[in-house]
Amino acid sequence: MDTANEVKLQEQYIEKVKKINQNKIPKYTILTMGCQLNENDSEKLCGMLENMGYIQTQDSKEADLALFNTCCVRENAEDKLFGKLGELKRLKEERGIIIAIGGCMMQEKHITDKIKQSYPFVDILFGTHTLHKFPENLYKTIEEKKKLEDIIDINGEIYEGLPIKREGNIKASVTIMNGCNNFCSYCIVPYVRGRERSRMPKDIIYEIEDLAKQGYQEITLLGQNVNSYLRAEHEKGINFGDKEGIHSFATLLKAINKIDGIKRIRFVSPHPKDFTEDVIEAIASCNKVCKLVHLPLQSGNSKVLKEMNRKYTKEQYLALVKQMKEKIPNLTLSTDIIVGFPGETEKEFEDTLDVVRQVKFEQVYMFIYSRRVGTPGDKMENQIPEEQKHKRFDRLKALVESQMQENNQKYVGTVQKVLVEGESKNNKDLLTGRTDSNKVVIFEGSEDLIGKIIDLKIISEHMWYLKGEM
Ligand code: SF4
User: Fold this and answer.
1) Which has the closest alpha carbon to 270: 240, 250, 243?
2) Mapping DSSP to helix (H, G, I), strand (E, B) and coil, where does residue 403 land?
3) Extended strands (E) in 278-391
4) What integer is the mean pLDDT of 291-307?
């Protein structure tokens, strides 16, 4: 069945479950782990559930359905899931709630085997390629009282037109592609999300034009490798239409930049090896594209990068940074770094610190290497002892925090354009927003500023935020 008819079939199951729920207001809880792509998938799961007559609750004690959208990039995610399942066992016995688990972790057989063995009370297990079939699986669970496992290992498809319930009304995430063909040796994503596949330009433009009509100001384009958008389709000779001449990531950015109403465009996650001239030029020339670019480094040593299968060297990464800083005015950079990859020596770790000192990143997401079953990294012999990994992590963290103070200082006294997002979480009398470089700014102001981009003078800096005034 083609994807369009598959979505139509699921709409029929949505109606069937809705019928079962009429005269009732069943409640659901949802726990999302992992990346922004998973959060966007959860928005689709919430959209389907609310079309089936469910309403969301934060309190599992009053829920009729508990849903987990899992991540498997790091080990602690599994512990978190099993802990939550333990808590739900009693509610299952007392109230017969339905428990459903989806997401990347479900593509790992050793995990689903563990769940079936240790948590046999779980009703539905579904994977990354069957998320769109959630209405059908829920209907069968309710009607046939059966436990269901709907997990397939395929290259992957794109399902357009799934219902979506978005968090907030100022910023929205839009997935432009899924899957990854890079197979970095520490990463499980290619094994659980399938091969790279891009949405058709017309579907992305249609979605963003609709978001602009709804008043959304900022769009974040999502993908494991956004700057290889449409490359797999080119390679396979797939016709992706001629929407505004879009045939690459650069031309997609330029087309979105023309959409009235959208004020800011962000994107995650790009790969350094795919930053071609046209992408750099598009970031520089598109006034709505934020000049904070996420450029995952992972390691600063070329031998480690080779073993990570990252397809660039330390020198190439630094040359790219230099080229981007020359071509893109006001560019700021964020990055991801893994410490303790198998075989990483002290000297090789020093190379990572050296790149951090040279580049002065605006933001560094730091991770301790975590073995993932099924990845080449997991089979490597020279694993680094945990204690040593933590020592390196602490050294990197100290360097990054010292640089952040320096970086933040340069904002004081400047006027920044800030998108006002709402009340400050820690102080209801203050508002919060973000600069183009994604810095949090706290300031005094009236509620009618929420959703607007305003000029704020930065008067002081604090480790995790800046203080501003009108
Ligand atoms: S590019 Fe590498 S790190 Fe990123 S999702 Fe693909 S395999 Fe994982």
Assistant:
1) 250
2) helix
3) 292-294, 332-339, 363-368
4) 98
Pocket test for ligand 1, best of 183, 185, 224, 273 (most atoms within 8 A of CB): 224
Grouping H, G, I as helix, E, B as strand and the rest as coil, residue 345 is coil
Q: How far is the first Cα of the chain from the last one, in angstroms, to the nearest whole number?
A: 56
For residue 186, pLDDT over 90 is answered with yes
CA of residue 16 to ligand 1 center, whole Å: 39
pLDDT tens, 15-49? 999 999 999 999 999 999 999 999 999 999 999 99
> What's the chain's length in residues?
470
Is residue 126 within 8 Å of 150, Cβ to Cβ?
yes
Q: Classify residue 33 by burial, with Cβ atoms within 10 Å: 0-12, 13-18, 19+.
A: buried
Residue with structure tokens 């209405």?
135
What residues does ligand 1 touch, defined as CB less than 6 Å away?
A: 180, 182-184, 187, 189-190, 224-225, 271
Above 90 in pLDDT, residue 144? no
Give nearest CA residue, ligand 1 atom 2: 184
- 418-454 pLDDT, tens digit per residue, is 999 999 988 889 999 999 999 999 999 999 999 999 9
CA of 271 to the centre of ligand 1 (A): 8
Q: Where are the beta strands (DSSP E) in 42-97?
A: 55-56, 65-70
Residues in Cβ contact with 314 at an 8 Å cutoff, skipping those fewer than 6 apart: 300, 301, 302, 305, 351, 355
Provide the H-helix boundaries in 183-248: 189-193, 201-213, 231-236
Read off the pLDDT of residues 75-115 as tens digits, 9 standing for 90 and up. 678 889 999 999 999 999 999 999 999 999 999 999 999 99
